[in-house]
Predict the structure.
Amino acid sequence: MVDPHQVVSSLIPLVSAALPEIPERLRELIEPLVPHRALVIFTEDCTGRPQKKAGDPVITDQVTLLELDAVRRRMRGTPGAVSDAVIAGSGRPVCAWLAGTGALLVLCEPTTGAEPDAATRKTIQAMWEIAALRIRQQVSEAPASFMSQSHAVASERLRVTTELVDRHSTDLEVILAALRSTQLSDRQARASATELATAALIAAKTGSDVVVELSEEPVAEAFTRLRGDLRPLSRYGSLAVHFVEPPRDGRALPGEIAHAARAIVRSAILSMNNQDAVSKVLVQWDCDGTNLLIIIRDDGAGQLGDDDPGMRQIRSRAAAFGGTVSLDNVPDWGSDLRIALPLDPPRSREDERWDLAPREREVLGQLVRGSRNRDIARHLHISENTVKFHLSQLYRKLGVGSRAEAVALAVSAGSPQVGSGKEGS
């Protein structure tokens, strides 16, 4: 007979885990049920670092978001059923589950060789639902500095973009090879090239969709999710929350801005609800093209102050993104809180000087370390052709004509540590 106390106790490390620890804690729970080589998570709740993984580094260091997205798009039928998928560049057996949050769990190379039975699949599904909710909670409560860093770096999005560039380069080479082939007639070469180009276009569209999904959240969808987050306040309490919808065709929000905006609204409403005589709160989002504009008003006594813990948290979150906060209290008429969050990340000193993209900063950092093209490609998980492309862009922006000149300029400018190339999971 299953011991309920043992079951609950086994979940404590998972529900109490910090965000970076969740994959390993989840793997410890699942391993006795389904031994596997690696565990990989794909969640759009954490847009800056949507990949989370534990297990064999041969898999975890090489798995890509495009591969995980392909698994997610193909998921049909029974969750946890064994199927074949390309993971870390090779075909492997996998078991996959989707959580209610939309997050994907993939167990790579289950070592039993047999498909998990129905009871085991349901147990893992329940564990995964708890882990996925914990990830969403951790992201929503993440320090403003963490979200701001994700907004500025967006390392996973850069990696996906680089994967697309590599794939596009390979597709073009294959198409050219077909057209140049002496083994094919002109008609056969054209037919082959057309087929290859069609497949390449479909793959490119799929990949670009992944980049958009990771990068942005439509403002209407972000606001709908906010309404869902706040529904318990009006359903189970006496506070009435009124919403003024943003324009549905407004500019999409970067994922971290959407998370920050929802956290700000939650903090504001909780602070307003703690005041006397507050029965109604109005929440409005708008966009002026460069900023998300948030307006929150209550019908209380107008006593919300900057010493309130919620207000301190709001100012901290807004400041992390270069935003502004304005609080206006009118006695006996309520508090009026207005926040503006810039939709574009701040530019670094190197960006302003040379207009370098984040990947170009990473390549420059590798140059300063004396790395060759092959080493840079291996370190950044890109092809040597892509390294050459970034180098040509880098030389143009720096106004130099050689590797040595680029290194000399970077060192003389005091930037020996430009772009470490390390990307967190």
Summary: The longest strand covers residues 90-98. The chain has four domains: 4-140, 154-215, 219-342, 349-412. The radius of gyration is 25 Å.
